[in-house]
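Give me structure tokens for this 428-residue protein.
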Amino acid sequence: MDNKNIYEILNEIDFTETTEEVELTDIEKKKLKKNVRRKIYKEKDIYKRIISVAIITLIIISFGISPWGKSVIAEIKEKLIFTPEHGLIDGDENKNLYVLEEPKRVNINGNEILVKSIDNKDGYIYIHFEGVPWNEVESIKNNTSMKIKNNKFIKIDKNSGDTANSSDDGLCNLFVTFDEGHDLITEFDLCYKEENIGQFSLKKVDVKNRYDEIGGNAIDKDIVIGATSYYIEGKRHFKTWTNIENVDTDEYTMNMERVEEIEVRDNEGNLLEIKGAEDGTGRGYELLSDYKEWLNITIKKILVDYNIKNMPNLKITIPKDGELVELNKEITVDSINEKVIATSIENRNNEIVINFKFFKNEDKDRCIDMISQTSRAGGSSGDRELLIGNINIDNDDLTIIERLTGKIELKANKIGITQDGNWEFKIE
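Here you go.
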């Protein structure tokens, strides 16, 4: 490699790029009022789970190209486990996992708090408290303990105690960890300031070998989608799962972000009312009636996220403040047989906005509806009806090289896709 200083390198960079200032089109001016997906990427504290998710093995069964890339998803090799807290997880990695079968409510310092889940794996016990008042977090972390046989008390690990916002104002989710030591603990009392607030018993998970053993399911577009029913405090819930959960190939990783269109009916065909369970997964639902028979589920649309591993960088000249410049640069994503066009770039209100045009793939009943990047802070939005979107980058987040060269290095490696289909199945 030649020994060049930064000034010699900058001198070799092509600063000239033909640009033309254009007016915003009517489509670009139209506000994204509906069918908008938005993501803001920022650093935040995240509870580090020890549960291994179900990594689906891809089986190549033909040389054709599936709607989901260059491999056709056919079946799974891994053993599977379903838990209400985590959904579908890897059966081999979690075969020695013990869990709380049903959440239980406890009273801590006069507050009714739900023990949402308890997991015991590899010598540690993980507890998820839901509905914790923010002003009680430190007290619970400092004064809660487990009492096991021989009246021995185990305190919460000082390095644990992550929190996450709750849908209720003033409340949060609290995640704590206990070190169980050398002996397996499956039964214990939970104590607050040495006062017994509840008895708990954990059960070893049941490992399954087939999707049908997990719950009702259907396949369309090479995608299996299913659901499993369970109860929380006497109320019926169900959680959806899929065979495209955490798929990892040489070219991309892929996840179903969420189900977008879902209907649930009873055995007579009557529509049942449901609501999102707000469990942090986007997969859980609560049934708003006491119906206990088979649920007939129909899913017509899902959202899928790709993280492209070898996405090419797009080098774009940064326009002047208040200026919009036409680009018309095509970005081809060969690994998933899709493309987008970067139509224009504008510098407004102290941020760079890069606008995109998407295309609907009629043969695959799907379209890109979001493009974003994971390498820096910023935001993105997309409209699946207008087939347009944008990436927003704050001027303060430009790198030193980008400021010196006047060119932005864009690696839009996150692709969001809306997939239409027809998944109909029953669950108990």
